[in-house]
Amino acid sequence: MAQDSETDNRKWYQGITRYQWIILIIACAGWIFDVYEGQIFNITRGDMLDDLLSGITDETERKAEVDKWGDWFLAAFLLGGTAGGLLFGTLADRFGRRPIMILTILTYSAFSGLTYFATDLWQVATLRFFVAMGVGGEWAVAASLVAEVFPKRARTHASGIFHASSVVGTWIAALAGMAVGAQWRYAYLIGILPALLVVWVRASVKEPEGWKKAVRKDSKKAGSFGDLLGNSRWRRHALLGMSLAAVGLASFWAVGVATQGLAKDMLVAEGHTAEQASQEAKFAYGIVQTTGAGIGLLAFGPLCARLGRRKAFVFGHVGAFLIVPITCYGPQTYEQLLFILPLFGFFTLCMHAGYAVYFPELFPNHLRATGTSFCFNVGRIMAAPMLLISGMVKAIEGIDSKQALTLLGTTFLLGLVVVAFLPETKGQDLPE
Question: Domains in the chain, start-ordered, CATH in brackets?
Fold first, then answer.
């Protein structure tokens, strides 16, 4: 029988059991709706904030306030993801993957639906925080579960597919945003639908044997932040993973989503009405750019398997750094922008699939969800100040959006610094 390794000659999907496929599908479904919750705000925030800030009559002033509050709401989302990720990650290591996955799904579903009723800025900020708590927790649990259930030879591909499914969430958000138009509230009611996943999770998901064994051995250490940060090996892995995620999340929210505004500005300059420009910009970001992002996410798992984790991350960060100024200053028309946006999406998002591959490989069974969540979600809070800065940079008089994005795109270079210190996990078993 062939050995279970990344050099196994079998196709990665050969020999995968029905249960393993079910786990991947459930993880993907949860993550799809996770991403919908985050992206629906990006797609509708112009309409939402124009509505909530309708009292500001000066067009230039309102646009600046929309940009500022948009980034500040994203910062609230990142902070909520951190809080929820840390809370639910440690609970998943203590009480199991299944019950906490159910709890996280119900959390982000409920608070998304309540956004329909928001009438003030502080209400939106509060609800985005609680939606993010569920989103942050669900990702860590699902990523850990996929890594634990799949064999080593298939782990990178399965984890990459799991994270790449985020593209479907963005597509759904884009279509929902275009369907509701200025009636942004209805898009948030769709966020209630993930609650239906709870029935499937409860019926199908079993706790991984490695986790059950670890808990039986020493339940007090399960999900312990003291053990995570007190052990020099796990602490180093947690801090490096956190830094890597911070670069990716800060650059994505500050730069990656900003092409919608770039497209809208270009369309308005070409003579389109604000409403027409808004609809076409949603298509440019939500469909065209996201398609390229999806290809990048799907490609990153095989890149990790072939090149190793470190070289794959170098590839992603260098490509992202180069593509930002090309996208800002290369296209002279909206049609030209559509041509380059798939490449922009590919390079600025591809390395995010690596987080689902890499982070679970850094921690033992009793700390896997805790450590994975720590990396991804403390990375969120480290990214939050970048969004506050981003909002201020975009609001500076005399700085146009292209200059702002190019400046903010240098953030990708910080990723190369972090990569230099990363341990390589290619071909290794998950720590026990």
Answer: 18-207+218-419 (1.20.1250.20)
